[in-house]
Design goal:
By secondary structure, the protein is of the alpha/beta class. 43% of the residues lie in helices and 14% in strands. The strands form three sheets. It has a six-stranded mixed β-sheet with strand order 3-12-11-4-5-6, sandwiched between helices. The N terminus is likely disordered.
Length: 403
């Protein structure tokens, strides 16, 4: 989802950009990456020894500066929490997930927020405070098909946005606030799906025309402006990156070629009648084991059936999503992808593909899933704000007191 060559049919975003985030895609010097990698292991950042090493690492902020930056972010988050309209009973249920010893992820999961896929928040918090590595945050992948009338006409209507996408949009608003407060290279990413023109239960059968696709992308960009996700002076690929699903189709062959050249598995091709090809990535069992996937069923599936990339000539969602990460800069970015829990299986496939290509690692690719059947946008924002506020306060507690 990360190539600045993607453009948007929206003149306001064509130029201008913040100098703060102008070098988002620039690789970090290897010494800085290694220094951060040593620190960013589980909860090690919250120990006095780790903080001393951080203080002595060249090119990073001092502990006083880290403390000041953490205080700024906590203030933003606590203001969001205080202004929340979530009822008291729901607040108490969420608050119990945050204990003095850390996050009770199971309690948070029962509420409808699954943060178990983050492999520890340390990586995200450190990058947010240090301004390196850059962070890409994707919270929503809107579907154009949600705006189809029963007779197949594309009609952009805010009222048609489903709950899972409303949650994602409100979370994007939250993270845009954090990005602006931190002055760190944080980019809000959204993959706009104007390729698929149907979802289960939708009666429409017509294909989108290029004009309809442009209409949808432009309308969503304007809506993101209304919500404050896109702001005056932003540059596409700088503060915000809106990608089109249609543009990923042409990248899928490159993805398949790179997977074929990897040593993590093999590409299986099956020709169907009419020359339509089904393509599957069959990973090595040892590679699947190395992924440490939480789902036992997913591990079995990958070993037995592999990861299908294309079915009867049509690229599948996991291949399209992974193709958006092929830009070299993605090796140097921490990715946080927050989607509905129905996307967990697909995200495991995307992560496996990107890991096979040495693009994503557990320390650089994180997921938080929300259950749109159980939580409202307001509840999701409250819970995620609490999550990041609690982690920042843990860091603050470990910092030496300023004299």
């Amino acid at each position: 989802m990360k190539t600045a060559t993607n453009t948007l049919a929206h003149d306001h975003l064509a130029h201008h950009g913040s100098a703060i985030r102008a070098n988002l895609a620039q690789p970090l010097p290897s010494v800085e990456l290694e220094a951060l990698a040593e620190l960013l292991t589980h909860d090690s950042l919250y120990t006095s020894e780790a903080l001393q090493r951080l203080e002595q690492t060249e090119g990073l902020f001092s502990l006083d500066e880290i403390g000041n930056r953490a205080s700024q972010l906590v203030q933003v988050l606590d203001e969001v929490i205080a202004a929340s309209t979530v009822d008291q009973e729901r607040r108490q249920a969420i608050d119990t997930a945050f204990t003095s010893s850390g996050l009770d992820s199971e309690a948070l999961k029962q509420i409808g927020i699954n943060a178990e896929y983050t492999a520890g928040m340390t990586h995200l918090i450190a990058a947010l405070l240090q301004g390196k590595p850059p962070i890409d945050i994707e919270t929503v992948g809107p579907y154009a098909c949600e705006h189809l009338t029963e007779d197949g006409v594309l009609q952009i209507d805010e009222q048609n946005i489903p709950n899972d996408e409303q949650i994602g949009i409100e979370l994007a608003v939250l993270f845009r606030q954090l990005a602006d407060a931190s002055e760190s290279p944080v980019r809000i990413v959204a993959l706009l799906d104007e390729l698929n023109n149907y979802r289960e239960g939708n009666l429409a059968t017509k294909r989108f025309t290029p004009e309809e696709q442009d209409q949808y992308v432009t309308a969503m960009a304007k809506y993101f402006e209304q919500k404050g996700i896109i702001q005056p002076g932003d540059s596409m690929g700088g503060e915000v990156l809106l990608l089109r699903e249609t543009e990923q189709v042409e990248r899928v062959p490159q993805l398949i070629e790179k997977l074929s050249a990897s040593n993590k598995g093999q590409i299986i091709r099956d020709n169907e009648e009419g020359g339509l090809e089904t393509i599957t990535f069959m990973p090595k069992e040892s590679f699947v084991d190395s992924l440490n996937l939480r789902s036992r069923n997913r591990r079995k599936e990958f070993k037995r059936r592999g990861i299908m990339l294309q079915e009867k000539g049509q690229p599948l969602c996991q291949a399209l999503d992974a193709s958006a990460f092929l830009g070299e800069e993605n090796r140097h970015i921490i990715h946080l992808v927050m989607l509905d829990h129905d996307m967990a299986a697909q995200q495991d496939k995307v992560f496996a593909i990107l890991n096979a290509l040495d693009i994503a690692r557990p320390s650089s690719y994180h997921n938080i899933f929300t259950d749109s059947n159980a939580v409202t946008p307001e509840t999701a924002v409250y819970a995620v704000a609490k999550l990041f506020s609690a982690e920042l306060k843990r860091l603050q507690a470990a910092l030496p007191q300023q004299s």
